[in-house]
Design goal:
About 15% of the residues lie in helices and about 35% in strands. The chain is an alpha+beta fold. Strand 1 and strand 2 form a beta hairpin.
């Protein structure tokens, strides 16, 4: 499937990747079954069931050894309910 380049932060504490921005650079997969590919076989069809997923071509700007903010909040809230 096609890919779109994006930059973000990797958090090793929880394993999450938090996307900051996309560059707009896209990589064409060349598959006839991919809706976003230039080789798509149903270019004029009204209903097409081809995959519309674009995968992230991830570039890591910062590598943190702690959990992301969302996971920190979830752990904090979980502790308050006890």
């Amino acid at each position: 499937m096609c890919k779109e380049e994006c930059f973000g932060n990797q958090y090793r504490g929880c394993g999450h990747y938090v996307r900051l921005y996309s560059t707009g650079n896209k990589t064409d997969c060349g598959s006839p079954d991919c809706f976003h590919s230039s080789a798509h076989k149903h270019k004029t069809a009204r209903t097409c069931h081809c995959s519309r997923i674009i995968y992230d071509d991830r570039r890591v700007l910062n590598l943190f050894q702690e959990p992301c903010d969302h996971c920190k909040e979830a752990n904090y809230d979980r502790g308050r309910r006890r």
